[in-house]
Amino acid sequence: MKVEENIRFCKLYDLYGKLLSEGQREIMSYYLNDDLTLSEIAENLKISRQAVKDSITKAGHKLEELENKLALLKRIENYEEVIKDLQKQLFKGQEE
């Protein structure tokens, strides 16, 4: 997973993680917050590595589906851009 994709995945999990199943939340927390490998997660939970991979994949699809419907991350990123623009204008005015 590319760095940009991983960052997006983390942001989506922060926004929508509570809407995942308890099992998916546990696996995603290990994966994203604790930075464990699939094998380490599987060992901790006494399940197969494939089950961990499937859970992460399904959770990822669910998070993207929620973002497509609700667009919270998109709105937040738009607000962040507006704030950056306003800060630039403010600091530009102070320099003059």
- Rg from Cα: 18 Å
N-to-C CA distance: 44 Å
Rough shape?
A: elongated
Mean pLDDT: 94
SS-based structural class?
A: mainly alpha
Output the number of helix runs: 5
Give the uncertain stretches in residue-range form.
Answer: none
- Beta content comes to under 5%
Please count the beta strands (DSSP E, at least 2 residues each): 0
- Helix content, binned percent: over 70%
Instruction: Let me know the largest β-sheet.
Output: none
**In sequence order, what are the helices and strands, one letter per element?**
HHHHH
Short note summarizing the structure:
This protein is an all-alpha fold and 96 residues long.
Which helices and strands appear, and what pairs or packs with what?
Blueprint: H1 3-16, H2 22-33, H3 38-45, H4 49-70, H5 72-95
Helix pairs in contact: 1-4, 2-4, 3-4
Description of the structure:
This protein is mostly helical and 96 residues long. Helices cover 83% and strands 0% of the residues. It contains five helices and no strands. Helix 1 (3-16) packs across helix 4 and helix 2 (22-33) crosses helix 4. It is elongated and about 60 Å long.
